[in-house]
From TrEMBL:
PANTHER family per the UniProt record, alphabetical: UDP-ARABINOSE 4-EPIMERASE 1 (PTHR43725:SF53), UDP-GLUCOSE 4-EPIMERASE (PTHR43725)
Obligatory cofactor(s): NAD(+)
InterPro entries, A to Z: Epimerase_deHydtase (IPR001509), NAD(P)-bd_dom_sf (IPR036291), UDP_G4E (IPR005886)
Molecular function GO labels: UDP-glucose 4-epimerase activity
Protein name from the UniProt record: UDP-glucose 4-epimerase
Domain NAD-dependent epimerase/dehydratase as annotated: residue spans: 3-259
Name of the encoding gene: galE
NCBIfam families for this protein: galE
Family indicated by similarity: Belongs to the NAD(P)-dependent epimerase/dehydratase family.
Pathway participation: Carbohydrate metabolism; galactose metabolism
CDD domains hit by this protein: UDP_G4E_1_SDR_e (cd05247)
Enzyme Commission number(s): 5.1.3.2
Organism field: Natronomicrosphaera hydrolytica
Alphabetical list of Pfam families matching this protein: Epimerase (PF01370)
Length: 337
């Protein structure tokens, strides 16, 4: 298939580009490079010896996006492009609604104008807010507790309405839990600025780039008092995307949780990282981070049953190993040393 990957120069998008090409698809990247890295695409190009077609465009430039869709004869869009920091969304809500919600509206208009009828959308478990029970199943109420979650939930709603009005359109919204790790072959990885995610921060401590990791709260109602999350390896996540894409039939409206169905506490992650790296990783207790639910993990049975996906990484040590390989070999990320 001819697939347009929006946000393809970002962390998850670049792993999707690599995987889809390995699966034999023809991939075009669209990214405005606001938080992406041209160097990630260069690395994919270098490792494969094959050019990565790249459109440096913003989602909100509808006409230019339409032209790109037509020019590359796109069959399906995988839509990763978004702003994705919960804390930033609280202080800059308009930026999030403009980029994530209005940006997707513009993309849908462009797809409509270009006659592209398949979309796989990056949603998030942040759309569930603080669920009453665990694990989370897709039918549970969605009530986000931050603008980031709302900016994604609005898109889910828009997709339903658009698909109801256009019966030849099909979409899947994949609600990710915590995405972690790097390509097992070491070619690409995670490089966020600012970095706010737990595993990268812990590995920056292991590298000596930070003095300690602060554990945000140890008074939660969980077995060791720290927050529990469901960490899915980025390669398992993108494999699920291509499997779902292949299954999309006209008029499909699919919603899936994308996690491994097992939770780890913050303390367990720190301990696992100490074992993997063999480094002393100083941790300090700090106050809770506003907006953090105590526990979030998936029931991912629907994806297993309907699509046949299973995660290959179920041991957190192996997930951290892939991330550690990337950070050790690229201590400055994609920046030139
Ligand atoms: N990282 C996670 O744990 C996680 C969890 C749940 C959902 N998600 C979702 O997955 C997707 C990818 O996340 P990521 O961690 O790879 O983020 P990222 O910041 O690394 O990548 C996002 C990419 O999108 C690009 N982009 C943003 N707005 C754009 C626009 N208006 N036009 C064109 N390009 C634009 C950025 O330049 C960047 O390259 C996002 O939609 C995010 O909401 C991520
Ligand atoms: O320095 C740190 C960083 C994080 N945490 C904790 O570690 C856990 C994971 O945090 P983080 O890695 O920042 O991920 P989340 O806040 O869970 O958010 C991620 O996962 C969500 C889905 O769960 C996505 O929607 C978001 O885009 C993505 O950033 C949370 O309990 C945090 O409180 C710490 O204790 N110390």
């Amino acid at each position: 298939m001819n697939v347009l990957v929006t946000g393809g120069a970002g962390y998850i998008g670049s792993h999707a580009v690599k995987h889809l090409r390995e699966q034999g698809h023809h991939v075009v990247v669209l990214d405005n490079l606001h938080r992406g890295h041209r160097a990630a695409l260069d690395a994919i190009e270098q490792a494969s010896g094959k050019h990565v077609p790249f459109e440096e465009l913003d989602l909100r430039h509808t006409e230019a996006v339409t032209s790109a869709l037509v020019h590359h004869k796109i069959d399906c869009v995988m839509h990763f492009a978004a702003l994705a920091y919960v804390g930033e969304s609280v202080t800059e809500p308009l930026t999030y609604y403009d980029n994530n919600t209005a940006g997707t509206l513009s993309l849908l208009q462009a797809m409509h104008d270009a006659g592209v009828r398949r979309l796989v959308f990056s949603s998030t478990c942040a759309t569930y807010g603080e669920p009453a029970s665990m694990p989370i199943v897709e039918t549970m109420p969605q009530s986000p507790i931050n603008p980031y979650g709302w900016s994604k939930l609005f898109v889910e709603r828009i997709l339903i309405d658009y698909a109801n009005a256009n019966k030849d359109f099909a979409f899947a919204a994949l609600r990710y839990f915590n995405v972690a790790g790097s390509a097992a072959d070491g070619t690409i990885g995670e490089d966020h600025e600012p970095e706010t995610h737990l595993i990268p921060i812990i590995l920056e401590v292991a590298l000596g780039q930070r003095e300690h990791v602060t554990i945000f709260g140890e008074d939660y109602d969980t077995p060791d008092g720290t927050c529990i999350r469901d960490y899915i390896h980025v390669e398992d996540l993108v494999a699920a995307h291509s499997m779902v894409m292949q299954k999309l039939n006209p008029a499909d409206q699919r919603f899936y949780n994308l996690g491994i169905g097992q939770g780890y506490s913050v303390k367990q992650i720190v301990d696992a990282a100490r074992e993997v790296t063999g480094r002393d990783i100083p941790a300090q207790m700090g106050p809770r981070r506003p907006g953090d639910p105590p526990s979030l993990y998936a029931n991912a049975d629907k994806l297993r049953t309907e699509v046949g996906w299973t995660p290959s990484y179920t041991d957190i040590h192996r997930v951290i190993e892939t991330a550690w390989r990337w950070y050790r070999n690229h201590p400055d990320g994609y920046a030139q040393p």
